[in-house]
Specification:
About 30% of the residues lie in helices and about 20% in strands. Helix 1 runs parallel beside helix 2. A 5-stranded parallel beta sheet has the order 4-3-2-1-5, sandwiched between helices. It contains 3 helices and 5 strands, in the order E-H-E-H-E-E-H-E. It has one domain: Hypothetical Protein Ychn, Chain: A, CATH 3.40.1260. With about 120 residues, the chain is α/β, with parallel strands linked by helices.
Length: about 120
Amino acid sequence: MEQRPSVLIVVDSDPHVSARPAEAARIALGVAAWKQADVSLCLSGPAAAALTEWPEDLVEGESFQHHLASFVEAGGRVFTHKPSSDPAVPKGPEVPREQIDVNGLADLSRTASQLLRF
């Protein structure tokens, strides 16, 4: 049986000043809903702030949270990557996610069929 392609979407844009994290979550949901690829979304560095409890403080924060929840329901995986110089990953909505280090991000990138950056 042929292995399904995998898509990794890495987001490192700051959600306080950019709608790119929300757009990445919308795209991740659209690809995951298609059910033709395994999709992972990695929020790296400042993008991890999109997991805050206060979506109204972020550009398109409510849209991000809506799309992220639907993405997880569709079978998508969420990762957070915190470079050592960044503050701790914020606590936020109860979205299943895995914390990875630089090696974990490298492994995900290497094994992905497609890689998108936002």
